Structures
1.
Amino acid sequence: MTQMTAPTAAVLIIGDEILSGRTADTNLNTVARFLAALGIDLREARTVGDREEQIVEALNALRHAHDYVFTTGGIGPTHDDITADCVARAFGVGISEHPTALAILEQRYGHELNAARRRMARIPEGGVLIANPVTDAPGFQVENVFVMAGVPRIMTAMLEDVAPRLRTGAVVHARTLRVSGVGEGAVAATLAEAARANRELSFGSYPFGAGSQGEIGTNLVVRGRDAAAVEAAVAALSERLTAEGVAVALQPA
Amino acid sequence: MTQMTAPTAAVLIIGDEILSGRTADTNLNTVARFLAALGIDLREARTVGDREEQIVEALNALRHAHDYVFTTGGIGPTHDDITADCVARAFGVGISEHPTALAILEQRYGHELNAARRRMARIPEGGVLIANPVTDAPGFQVENVFVMAGVPRIMTAMLEDVAPRLRTGAVVHARTLRVSGVGEGAVAATLAEAARANRELSFGSYPFGAGSQGEIGTNLVVRGRDAAAVEAAVAALSERLTAEGVAVALQPA
């Protein structure tokens, strides 16, 4: 079965600014949508601070549990950018200036390439660079771990260079059935029955408008790698709910 | 020292919709800002899918490692809402209808209280309810774990009922020094020196405008529980950078 062989992935978000509340992470959603389009199953994400022990421990847990790990944050020129050293430690390898990375930084900064900026050329042994078309300083890949910048625009650009390196799976198809006028509790039994009858698909319910004066309802989402099975299940669910007198609208695919 | 006794916390975000990319989580940032205002150190966050093994494992790891755990998601009426059962399993306790929770649901739903909605009254043994002023169906607390809804408006409202139950710490003060016209690499050495001279404080650098045609620069953030130490450090840093010819502006506290 296709879904048995889909690669799995995890995201590791690194940065005190996320945990302090100063910055709202948006990278997780970007990576999630990127992986979904490639048919890769994102199974978990972790957010940790700029702490060596915590980063190394999370990296080792995730890289052994998943086919791919994507990290964001901590690869800039300042003292709190410790991700590269943590990756080297997690893999038990050395870290040194990568000639190509150094050449890229020399090209960009010229005589302004000071010691701090030069730190960005330090790459763990065996690391393969990830292109950064925004500010040049590269990310890198070590085995199944892809180390990317935290700045969303840079991270998003880096994904373009990462994509061709990934084994892809069958894409998950999703269809949404919008239920309006009643809360999700009114359709939960029928939804559960559909889930029991289609165990190879996933059925989610995402309510909207609850508690407000506006329209209430819920979006029922059917997901699976077999597009025909998804279409058949969502059609059956739509028919069943309509027969029960519930207002439903199948959303465009 | 005050910072030695600050409580620590973790967030566990539960829901396939976050990992599939369908929904961008905003709850982590809400909880992070809530905890920062109470002087509680948010140390890590995890995001997992609607999978029992994964939820139980994450819950047990986090509740033993931190003073508090805050979960969001999976407490609604549908078949994929399995958080309450997972919490019971993680703590090794039973789960049954909580009389007060049931009364709340009867009050809200009347004759529309079907079996699916009634599931929301199932609370692990020893659980203390968390009020939900938006849609009534309560969250609950078991020991150091606070179980909240995934819908952001509901979760935010539940935090109001959670706040008085938490031991608070000294609030972390943060001041931002905005550097403009140069990238963070130009000030990294001075920043690192300030960090070495003030090990009880944290110094972060968050660049903006990198690679674009607009103004470039970085926000240097100094954080610590001793407000006077933060003010002194940020003033010294500002003076030092100004002497180096860097344009800086201390942002309002």
2.
Amino acid sequence: MMWTHQPSGSRQQTLTGKNRKQECIMDTVKSLSPFFEPNGIAIVGARSTPGFGFGLPKNLRDHGWADKTYLVNPNGGTIHGYPVFKTLKEIPAPVDLAVVLVPAPAVPKVLGEIGEHGIKNTIIMSAGFAEAGEEGKTRQARARKIALSYDMQVIGPNCVGVVNTANAFCTTEVMPEAYTPGKLAVIAQSGVFGQNILERVNEYGIYVSKAVTLGNRLVTNEIHILDYLHKDPDTDTIAMYLEGSADGEQLRHTIVKVTPDKPVIVLKSGRTSEGRAATESHTGSLSGEDNLYDGMFAQTGAIRAETLDDFTTYCRAFATQPLPKGNRLGIITGSGSMGALATDCAIKNGLTVPPLSKRLMAVMKEGAPDWMNTKNPLDVGPSGLFPRAFNAMMEDPDFDMILAVIAVPYSAVRFRLTEFTIEDFFFGGTLPLKERKWEKPFMIAVVCHEDLVSNFRERAEPGTPVFNTPEQPVRALAALWRYQNWKNNHK
Amino acid sequence: MMWTHQPSGSRQQTLTGKNRKQECIMDTVKSLSPFFEPNGIAIVGARSTPGFGFGLPKNLRDHGWADKTYLVNPNGGTIHGYPVFKTLKEIPAPVDLAVVLVPAPAVPKVLGEIGEHGIKNTIIMSAGFAEAGEEGKTRQARARKIALSYDMQVIGPNCVGVVNTANAFCTTEVMPEAYTPGKLAVIAQSGVFGQNILERVNEYGIYVSKAVTLGNRLVTNEIHILDYLHKDPDTDTIAMYLEGSADGEQLRHTIVKVTPDKPVIVLKSGRTSEGRAATESHTGSLSGEDNLYDGMFAQTGAIRAETLDDFTTYCRAFATQPLPKGNRLGIITGSGSMGALATDCAIKNGLTVPPLSKRLMAVMKEGAPDWMNTKNPLDVGPSGLFPRAFNAMMEDPDFDMILAVIAVPYSAVRFRLTEFTIEDFFFGGTLPLKERKWEKPFMIAVVCHEDLVSNFRERAEPGTPVFNTPEQPVRALAALWRYQNWKNNHK
């Protein structure tokens, strides 16, 4: 199936003919680095009353950017001890990034001044453009024309800009832990979504390299950012939330360049025409568009997440686990019911749950009680053989990935949790779970009271993701395999 | 499509011809009430060393059952201050329920003694029967023959028996909060599963009326229990975990009797042949069996859960929400992205997301900022209009159910949470959220840091379920509608 360009409404910039070609060339020659490593930042619309224009300068100062930050407001004065320049021209140093916080109606004029000053990179945070009715659309078209005339890269409008953990450059307020450097990059069309994903993965001990919120994509879009992150040495995995692509054909070309090197996880809304209507003022979408996206993602090796929960789950999996060599899942459990649910989910998601080898069966039968069936899923029940079974499965070359399902009544174990660690009881080994390295993907499902889930999470994460259902880790393992399988077929 | 009887392996008792007829008659004439309200309980296999035989007598005493509990062990003596009788015959009072905890090989003999003593209801907790190889299967067949010869109802073997919160009669150790009476009944084939579901729903403030773990279904099966719970005045909703049915045809007949009065939520594993193999020693299943179950559940108005997460979610929904009059979902959100994800999920699950009426648009446009699109999903952004929008939607007759998606960066709100309550900020009204009653189903998705999710849960649950993704509450609302729609079509 060919992926064809599907313009889909007012938030998309449809690039055709000369414009598109021109921009594609720009992609490759222009560097987006001032967005992430600026040498001088002008905050246009800084102000002394609460809001972004007040918070951002303080935020930048708190993270070591005071020397490179210059505030601009026609009223002058000082804010947070910074001098405020009345115009860009007054700034006594070179500036390579402008952050625009003025109200929407003032943006086009400001953009012209930025262009005149020779600044080639601009983040427009202000809302009130194509997302907000006819007047906003006209305004956005005007702003775009100005930006293009100055050959300017623009992130936004209607966004919260960027996060770069490597140098603590961040144009929006995030939780303190979000400054921790990690290897996952996040691209989100929506500012709220981007911030939410940061908070969400951080809860699991996963941290980002860079995050970009695209907003209305006046100039710079997900394709430019993908291209940039492809080459970013701090980024191993890219997670992207899209409502529609700026250019489907170009997106396909770019993803297919990235995926041999780095996994690209995609959550795309607008799967239904009603969902698309929810993201756009004019739908104008061809029916069947979602199937085209589905096909495109599958062809290019992108990993599509079905839900927000999947998206977070896949981020946790790719950020922490090695890729599997094959699709053979070994399941060890203390409850047959949970083993069955995990198996159903595995098969439906393209994994196999093969029988134990004769060798492994012999290992497990030794000292096992009569009632224990030595099969896969391996239900050890209350035999106390969990650590032996786990280690034998983990070392067995016949399994490419392992899932441990801890299903115990909390009423039965809660008073015993001080007697032993979960390593003693379930996994053996001399090292704490957190410090153990696995050669194949491994995840844990703790289907028990949330107190035991927390206990496991504290001891195992981020190295080993802990979930509270049998299905979610299986979906994550299957996503790892889908990606590896694509790579195998596209060498 | 006809639902045909699909025997599926060793855990199922295939009842055919005379046997089946005989048991069906027994269903209707026999009362299972001694399982839940015994007048005298014999614990056969009580012991003075750790294990069920030691814990259960203590447990019963702690919950007021000392006067009706009689311990049996050939060694005699005392346990927890109870006298221990060497045989059933020595018990100086009538007994209508026996709980068997002796090792599997001793069970058939004990069952004969129970029969001789005239006890018609027995729970066998011991494992080591059909789930544990050929010897176990032979043992189970022998035990079954004995039980049937005495016209005995037997729950188990390989189970943890029952919970009845109304009188605190419970044959297994559960968390203290599990004794709180509620209106949800739980049927689980697996003991671990049953206990887990109790713990899981309790975390959301949902409590059960009765719980039954079926184990290997020597005599009593899910059909008998469904029939009993149908008539149980303490039960409003029935949630059931099945690996396979004891009798598909009879299950269909029974569900279709129950669903006009009470919703039946079903999680069935063994959806794939590998999943069935995981629950059975011999698969012997016809391919396509799962489609038959799917069809049967749909025809009979049972609500099938796809995953463990869905199962818990549906329990929360049916235990707390009124049924919707139609399938028109109103979504109010602070982020367009989350509104789009919720909309996609709604459409895929049979709901509609209709536009706002002109009247409601007029209400919302009053005082709304320019950028606010008055549509459904209604993205109020940071306008402060959430309470007005919420209350207008809740009262609007054009919406049958409401979802509020709270998507805010926690970094932006965390210091302000002491300034106002979530009622002030999002829902208005003079009553705390917990005390407000809704006339249509209402759920909240808090797509934010887990601290804010907890904050909402503390203030809203159990009356209003709080989720942390936009999709899960939509699935729950759709399940409520599926059930109501079935009822509308089967009056």
